[in-house]
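Lab notebook, bench 4. Continuing the backlog of folding jobs that were queued last week. Each job is logged with the same field layout so the records can be merged later without manual cleanup. Today's entry covers Prefoldin subunit 1, a 96-residue chain. Filled in by technician R.K.

JOB TYPE: sequence-to-structure
TARGET: Prefoldin subunit 1
LENGTH: 96
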Amino acid sequence: RAAPHRRCSSSQAFTELQAKVIDTQQKVKLADIQIEQLSKTKKHAHLTDTEVMMLVDETRMYEGVGRMFILQSKGVIHNQLLEKQRIAEEKIKELE
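JOB STATUS: finished
OUTPUT FIELD FOLLOWS
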């Protein structure tokens, strides 16, 4: 005996499509939030770097590591801030 033919009703198909649309909208919204946060991180690193580069080279600078601070040179801090900006930019491009 043949198995009964199952037909997908149009309302069932519409409901599934609606669920996919909602899921996609949520993913887009999440990506937008992440892009906004990464943009803030990038801007903050850029502004900090601008301020750091105006200081004389002999200025004592400290990097926060966990619950302590480590003395770092201006060059090291500058490179870390540039790297932070680069990583944020890469992640933004991945999300767009």
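OBSERVATION: The mean pLDDT is 91.
SIGNED: R.K.
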